[in-house]
Amino acid sequence: MASDGDASVHGANETRPIGVTEELALVWPLLGRQIAFHRRLVDLTASVKAALLLSQAIYWTRHGRDIEQRSGWFYKTMGQWEMETGLSAKEQVGARQSLRRIAILDEQRVGVPAKLHFRLALDQLGTLLSDRIGMRTFCVDWDDGALVAELLGPALAYHRALAVVSGGVNAGLMLSRALYLTRRQSRKQSGGWFCGTATLWTQEIGLTRREQETVRRDLGRLSIWEEAISGIAESKWVVTETGEERRALYLNADHLFLSLVRLADAKFKPRREASEART
Asked: Which of 44, 59, 152, 189 is 20 to 30 A off residue 135, Cα-Cα?
């Protein structure tokens, strides 16, 4: 997050036991694969969920097998999209509508039975991204990694497993970012508290203030997310001298670890039971 992410909270970390770094070390192996979420695509699509789907579609378009031979088309089921992004079937439909609205996603059904295939309109996407950052280019070479990185802007690591344990993509995205901020802050002070504002969260991940409030409330109910104002147990938004609201935030890595363990257990339980039945 900018400089606020590095700010210390006087007194807050004193109530926290040491060992946040060790707790995070237990969490990390349970997160599974991450995908690159490009914040700039939120501004392009006016939707966090459409930006997430587009981020993954760009990845498969650039790195998928035989994409060039198929003229850019690739196949994915709704189940596969959900497995990779955490987006529900309904959220996928809405995201695809947003992408079609700005003419950057093509769809067609192929075969018997018909399977839905996707293709990004790369020329249109390149033009929109180039215009957004003021770059003059007639044709984007999507094999040029440096150029693509400049067009897409910084990528945030998004963990689909966190969306599952937190109840949705928005929470998973905010939790993914909070996890990295916690790790960074824990290297500086033992408590792992970090500070942020609603505006900074929007700049970082694209969620509106209302979406952030919903996520924070849900994560608080799961005992994964805690908030405080310096020296005050019960927190409310505080206005700084610059007029910006600011909170001290703490990610409960211990509770997050237990949630991820339960998720892993549920994932492998059918396989384990099947194996036991054979023996």
From this structure: 59
Buried b / exposed e along 11-32 (16+ C-beta atoms within 10 A): ebbeebeeebeebbeebeebbe
pTM for the predicted model, two decimal places: 0.81
Q: Could you state, in chain order, the average pLDDT of each consecutive group of 10 residues for the chain (279 residues)?
A: 39 48 85 95 97 98 92 95 96 98 96 93 96 85 94 96 94 93 77 78 94 92 77 40 60 79 70 53
Do 219 and 175 meet the contact criterion of CB atoms below 8 Å apart? yes
Q: Is 189 exposed, middle or buried (0-12, 13-18, 19+ CB in 10 A)?
A: middle
Q: Is 11 left (phi over 0), alpha (psi -120 to 50) or beta?
A: left
H or E segment to which residue 201 belongs: helix 198-205
Q: Single out the residue of 76, 66, 56 nearest to residue 118, CA to CA.
A: 76
Buried b (16+ CB within 10 A) or exposed e, 76-91: beeeebbebbbbeeeb
**Cross-strand partners of 246:** 238
Q: Which residue's structure tokens are 């023996």?
A: 279
